[in-house]
Amino acid sequence: MELRSQGVSDTEVLSAMERVPRELFVPEAFQDQAYENIALPIGAGQTISQPKIVAEMTSALELGPRLKVLEVGTGSGYQAAVLAHLCRRLYTVERHRTLADEAETRFAQLRLGNIVIQVGDGSEGWPAQAPFDRIIVTAQAVMLPDILLAQLREGGVMILPIVEKGQGQKVVRLRRTEKGIERETLMDARFVPLLDGLPRAK
Questions:
Q1: Is residue 165 within 8 Å of 150, Cβ to Cβ?
Q2: Per-domain residue ranges of the chain
Q3: Measured on CA atoms in the order 27, 45, 106, 39, is the torsion positive or negative?
Q4: Which of 5, 9, 15, 49 is catalytic?
């Protein structure tokens, strides 16, 4: 109801979010804030995005039940769990093994059998499974990621946060057409940076 009151009107996205228990994806210390519209830390320097951003980015993807989706940055797995209710198959990449293992356990608990997760460098995408109908990046890039764009099917849509000159961080929608890439700025955002490579072993 709070998301509806804030202007989120996509009924399929709202229904998917109602089916995903956010408290399952939030550390025990923050359980009392699981349903507040705020981002929360999840470990490894990462966060779970605020529900309104999840709803708006998911809606902007224009999902459908036959689509194949790539998510870059699994994190806690919350965004992936929402996406899984709205697409045919979701491929998600996480650079931190601890987060990936925890997310995989949650997917099993929720019986989300259409998610495939991989530990790897998300900035490289998932070439073996390309092309994708939709791509969502849940970390902020400093430039358009050509490697990911190359994995987007014609007619496909990518959503990602990016730094725009003089305007700070924005969520943009990129659409691949036969003529090239169309770009549309959607909203302000605050995401952790998209990093290359894998974390160093401690």
A1: no
A2: 2-188
A3: positive
A4: 49
Q: How far apart are the first and last CA of the chain?
A: 44
Return the SS3 of 198: coil
Strand, helix or coil for residue 4: helix
Has domain 2-188 been given CATH number 3.40.50.2030?
Answer: no
Whether 123 sits among the annotated catalytic residues: the reply is no
Residues of the chain with pLDDT under 70: 1, 5, 196-202
* DSSP of 8-51: ---HHHHHHHHTS-GGGGS-GGGGGGTTSSS-EEEETTEEEPPH
pLDDT in the model for residue 31: 92
**Half-sphere CA count of 102, side-chain side, radius 13 A:** 18
pTM beyond 0.85: the answer is yes
List C-alpha distances in Å: 94 to 35, 44, 125, 184, 190: 24, 11, 10, 26, 19
> CB neighbours of 159 closer than 8 A, spacing ≥ 6?
57, 60, 61, 134, 135, 136, 137, 171, 172, 173, 174, 186
Judge whether 117 and 94 are in contact, CB under 8 Å. Answer: yes
Residue 86, exposed/middle/buried by CB under 10 A (0-12, 13-18, 19+)?
buried
Contact between residue 171 and residue 57 where contact means Cβ atoms under 8 Å apart: yes
